[in-house]
Design brief:
Order of helices and strands: HHH
Strand content: under 5%
Largest sheet: none
Structural class: mainly alpha
Helix content: 55-70%
Radius of gyration: 22 Å
Number of strands: 0
Bound molecules: zinc ion
Distance between the termini: 60 Å
Number of helices: 3
Low-confidence stretches: none
């Protein structure tokens, strides 16, 4: 495996781990993506510097590319987090079933027609 291939895999690994952490800790998706992008850039370029022992002449380009790459990876990693939080919000909404998220507007039976759970009065 070539040196550049190892570098790309390392960048992907850093981006994935940082993205997961940012999305788990930061509730705002946009902020999580930008934070993950910046953190990925900093960590990757630090690792590249420590590995090579000097700053690459194309250092600013490396910062830009790693940042962009980190943001793109973070955006994709954020998809399941955004879906999960949207479902959570729907469930917290009083007009929806707390168990399955089914819309209970106008329901008078007191039982969710989707999952059969008794509706808790809010
Ligand atoms: Zn239900």
């Amino acid at each position: 495996m070539s040196e550049s291939m190892i570098g790309l895999l390392m960048l992907l690994g850093i981006a994935l781990v940082v993205s997961l952490l940012c999305h788990a800790l930061i509730r705002r998706p946009g902020l999580a993506v930008v934070t993950a992008g910046c953190t990925t850039t900093a960590l990757f370029n630090l690792a590249a510097y420590l590995h090579a022992g000097f700053l690459d002449p194309f250092f600013p380009i490396a910062v830009f590319v790693a940042g962009l790459y980190g943001c793109i990876v973070a955006w994709f990693v954020g998809i399941p987090f955004r879906i999960h939080r949207r479902r959570q919000k729907t469930r917290e909404d009083s007009s929806s079933c707390r168990n399955c998220g089914y819309n209970l507007t106008g329901n008078i039976s007191g039982i969710c027609p989707e999952c059969g759970r008794a509706i808790e009065p809010s």
